[in-house]
Write a structure and sequence with these properties.
The chain is mainly β. The chain has a domain of about 350 residues: TonB-dependent receptor, beta-barrel domain (Maltoporin, Chain A, Beta Barrel). It has 10 helices and 44 strands. The strands form 7 sheets. It has a 22-stranded antiparallel barrel. Strand 40 and strand 41 form a beta hairpin. The longest helix has 19 residues. The chain starts with a helix and ends with a strand. The relative contact order is 0.14. The N terminus is likely disordered.
């Protein structure tokens, strides 16, 4: 291990030197002290959760404000990765998430407040909506240029009355420094403790005043290259292939299984029937008896033995180019205009399962079989069943190329001395291309698999080459017997890159008038009126669609009228669909008391919004809040809101998609690899969220620099838009208990009904759909403390944030209520989360040297939130990760600094404890193995420098 560490560090330093030394201009100013609880560096902010409250101290809704510099000091790289370290986020999708090998690539960053689902968190950039960047209608925040970001405002409460749909759990608003002057640049290199995952991050930005100060221009460019870690077996924990097996019953409880193997297939091939059943092929094409491992409690899976397994990626790859420019101009003393634009090109990729053959029919006289073996096989019949993993072929991957164009222009000004107005327009477009480089064309595979000897010349050819030569021109016979037997020519014949292309466009026009029409005895009353219109459209095209069926003409084996042409994921074409939204909103902030006993400052904040969706009708949202400052040291705050999430275009009009996977079939005890069909539901209505938040802030005068806040939250979402999956064990259980009469039985197909438990009745497909039937409830507490002081006459800044969220319940008619609070995984796309999450920052500066330490903690995790499912394995234990940052500031002219730094993530190289999802026991080495949010990479080193001139 010491050798591996030293090599990694040496490679890192060499890489940094190569990037840094030729560019003496790279660096940055000294980082400021950690941000206070309610405003960075003491500045007043326009609170993201309000259009009338100007100072974060006076917001009735909790707002967590984080300084970008501080976050990136603790966690260099993507700001999206860094904010996910905050405990208010849980179950966010990111590069360390489990790989997606379907139509959705899981390599992006999707923020998830309160673990109630990414779609219920509204993402803004400088108060403006962004278009969806993923196929499922979500915003990947890696698309936001970050060189000129100065802070991130996070509203931890409902804000639909202020910003519209999606702000059910809160808002994440990325704020740009629009007045930056000078030049700044950075160069960062990173590498893991194991010498892989080497990252490069280069960026430059500049800003200057023009026209005697009336104008201002700024621009930035950033390049990021993160190759990811593309094999789980590159880590010791990844060689275990942890899964959960069993049936969740008293007799056969769910339990963790180490070194899981799929006992129905091997890397060289397994004979499944006939005279040599349960023999496997070795590297040289010979056969030997299959050695079974220990029974796992689930048919088809064992611990150890000769069975196969997958080796998916741990961290998805990301390569990004980001460009941003903005121009501001004061037309006169009361009218200001601006125009800004950005272009981001992201390439992401991850890898999942191996392609293979699952119980296909092969001729006993296949030409690639030795004569003696043909004779033995013929004793059991003219054909035999055969399974195999194609480990020598590239894995099934999902690679996405996303180009985002964003243009925003606006005017703002004053109306007299009491009112302000603003008008802005946004046009943005996202072009998403997602490709599966190695999709199998089943009709070509089955043609190539049926290999015979050409009597004319003795060469091995495809049977169809002799019988129907015009149907499959260029057919290359494939030898599937033994590891390493498949040639590149054969693989190229039956695999093909398939791709879908989606284009999303957003046009948004918004106008606001705000100001103080009059004052009361306690101060000015502030009001804001807002009108907004936006139109979102989406279209998709694909060269591999779910309605493509194999042409079986000339094929003797394995092909039928229901055989799909493509073995991998496919997406149907979608003609352009759109959603138009018209909104009008009002907000008021009314001071009630001022400078009274026990009422230093008391104010009421209220908001009301009417929204009309052409796809789902009208909705009304509102919010009421009270901010009671008893004194300068202590205040109470509270708010109640009604919020909505309207169904997005993917919810409504998702084109039919097919993905394949191995899922637990609780009726037969098998886990066959089957297609999963998914599509949208145009009859969806907006879901309604109701949020209560009550808390207080304490800033004791006898301890200068200390602030503490504690807030209680309770969120209930009714008519919740819920993804119902036939693969979900709870959904299956309801179906089987009903004997096939439950409507949930429509989410699966099988040949012999819902009472036959034999292998002949194994499920043949599952369905996933979206409906309005659930109620979601959660509650908890947020705690935050900040302390700025001095230690040995040197500045010391401490910040601690914690979220306690013991319950996240999903109530679905006819199904047992599920509580995923404190659970590692869940079905139905529900988001599981630790009950307690906490993050601490320590920042200490001695002269020009800064030492930063951050600690991230989560509590233990159970395996399931369904009380009817019994588990015998112990919970996944609690874990904490420590990060260290060392920096050295070099003073430059004009008060600027160059900063060199060295950062270590996961300082103590804490490997994840085993965890797995009980609904994905067949995805051995792909899904699970560690709890989402844990660090699967290990110790990671970063070094670089930043400069501002």
């Amino acid at each position: 291990m010491k050798m591996r560490v030293s090599k990694a560090v040496a490679g890192l330093l060499c890489g940094v030197s190569a990037v840094i030394l030729p560019a003496t201009a790279f660096a940055q100013t000294a980082s400021p002290a950690p941000a206070a609880a309610d405003a960075p560096s003491g500045e007043d902010i326009i609170v993201t959760g309000s259009r009338t409250v100007q100072n974060g101290n006076n917001s009735p809704t909790p707002v967590t404000v984080v300084n970008v510099t501080q976050l990136l000091d603790a966690h260099p790289g993507s700001i999206s990765d860094a904010i996910n370290d905050l405990p208010i986020f849980a179950a966010s999708r990111g590069q360390n998430g489990n790989p997606g090998t379907g139509v959705t690539n899981n390599s992006g960053n999707l923020q998830n407040l309160r673990a109630l689902g990414v779609p219920r968190t509204l993402i803004l950039w400088d108060n403006h909506r962004l278009p969806p960047t993923t196929q499922d209608g979500l915003v990947d925040t890696d698309m936001i240029p970050q060189m000129l970001l100065k802070r991130v405002d996070i509203v931890t409460g409902g804000a639909s009355a202020v910003y519209g749909s999606d702000a059910v759990t809160g808002v994440v608003n990325f704020i740009t420094d629009t007045s930056f002057n000078g030049i700044k640049a950075q160069a960062i290199k990173g590498v893991s403790n194991y010498g892989d995952g080497a990252t490069t991050d280069l960026g430059i930005a500049g800003g200057a005043e023009l026209f005697g100060g009336r104008g201002h221009i700024e621009a930035s460019y950033q390049y990021r290259d993160d190759p990811g870690v593309m094999h789980r077996t590159d880590r010791e924990w990844g060689t275990h292939q942890w899964t959960v097996q069993g049936a969740g019953t008293t007799a056969n409880r769910y339990h963790l299984v180490d070194h899981t193997r799929i006992s129905t297939t091997t890397f060289g091939g397994l004979i499944r029937s006939g005279s040599l059943a349960d023999y496997r092929f070795t590297a040289n094409g010979a056969v030997t008896p299959f050695v079974h491992g220990t029974a796992s409690g689930t048919t088809g899976f064992e611990s150890g033995g000769d069975g196969g397994y997958y080796d998916a990626s741990i961290r998805g790859a990301l390569r990004s180019h980001q460009a941003f420019a903005r121009f501001d101009y004061d037309f006169n003393d009361s009218i200001h205009g601006y125009v800004e634009g950005s272009f981001t090109a992201n390439q992401t990729a991850n890898s999942g399962i191996y392609n293979g053959l699952n119980n296909v029919t092969v001729s006993s006289t296949n030409a690639f079989l030795p004569t003696a073996l043909q004779t033995q096989l013929l004793a059991g019949g003219t054909t035999f069943k055969f399974s195999r993993l194609f480990a020598e072929l590239p894995r099934v991957d999902t690679a996405s190329h996303t180009n985002q164009f964003f243009v925003n222009a606006g005017l703002k000004g004053d109306i007299g001395s009491s009112f302000k107005w603003s008008l802005s327009g946004t046009h943005s477009q996202v072009i998403l291309r997602t490709r599966n480089d190695n999709n199998i064309d089943n009709q070509k595979l089955y043609a190539a698999l049926d290999a015979v000897t050409n009597p004319a010349n003795g060469q091995v050819v495809c049977r169809v080459t002799l019988t129907n030569p015009t149907l499959y021109p260029g057919c290359v016979p494939v030898n599937v017997f033994g590891t390493g037997s498949i040639t590149a020519d054969a693989a190229n014949y039956f695999t093909q890159a398939t791709e879908f292309r989606a284009i999303t466009k957003l046009d948004d026009i918004e106008g606001t008038v705000s100001g103080s029409p009059f004052s009361t005895w306690a101060g000015p009353v502030n009001v804001a009126l807002t009108g907004e219109w936006r139109h979102l459209s989406y279209a998709a095209s694909s060269n591999a669609v779910p309605t493509d069926y194999a042409n079986c003409t000339g094929l003797v084996y394995n092909c039928s009228a229901t055989t799909l042409r493509w073995a991998g994921s496919t997406l149907a074409n979608r003609s352009r669909v759109g959603q138009s939204v018209s909104e009008v909103a009002g907000e008021v902030d009314v001071p009630l008391l001022k400078d009274k006993p026990f009422a230093d400052d008391v104010s009421f904040n209220g908001a009301l919004r009417y929204t009309y969706y052409n796809t789902s009708g009208s909705a009304v949202t509102y919010k009421a809040g009270l901010d009671w400052n008893f004194s300068k040291a202590f205040k109470l705050r509270g708010s109640y809101s009604r919020d909505i999430r309207a169904p997005n275009l993917n919810d409504l009009f998702q084109p039919l998609t097919i993905t394949t996977g191995a899922f637990t079939d609780l009726l037969t005890g098998l886990s066959p690899t089957v297609p999963v069909y998914a599509g949208g539901n145009p009859n969806l209505k907006p879901e309604v969220g109701k949020t209560l938040s009550v808390g207080g802030v304490f800033k004791p005068e006898f301890i200068p620099g200390l602030s503490l806040s504690l807030d209680y939250f309770r969120i209930t979402v009714t008519n919740a838009i819920t993804n119902i999956q036939g693969t979900n064990p709870s959904i299956q259980a309801v179906c089987y208990a009903s004997g096939g009469t439950s409507p949930y039985c429509a989410l699966q197909t099988r040949p012999l009904g819902f009472t036959n438990t034999t292998a002949a009745n194994a499920v043949t497909s599952f369905t996933s759909t979206v409906i309005n039937i659930s109620r979601v409830k959660t509650w908890g507490f947020d705690f935050e403390t900040n302390y700025a002081t001095h230690l040995f006459n040197n500045p010391l800044n401490l910040r601690f944030l914690a979220t306690y969220q013991p319950h996240i319940t999903y109530e679905t008619p006819g199904v047992t209520t599920i509580d995923v609070g404190g659970v590692s995984f869940s079905s139905n796309a529900l988001q599981a989360s630790p009950k307690l999450r906490a993050t601490a920052f320590v920042d200490y500066k001695i002269d020009n040297v800064r030492i930063g330490i951050s600690e991230r903690y989560r509590s233990s995790l159970a395996f399931t939130g369904d009380p009817t499912q019994l588990v015998s394995s112990a919970n996944t234990p609690a874990v904490a990760y420590t990060n260290l940052n060392l920096s050295f500031d070099v003073p430059l002219k004009s008060g600027n600094y160059a900063q060199f730094f060295f950062n270590v993530q996961n300082l103590f190289n804490r490997m994840p404890d085993p965890a797995a999802f009980l609904g994905a026991n067949g995805n051995v080495g792909v899904f699970g193995g560690y709890a989402q949010g844990d660090d699967p990479i290990g110790r990671f080193f970063s070094a670089g420098f930043r400069v501002k001139l």
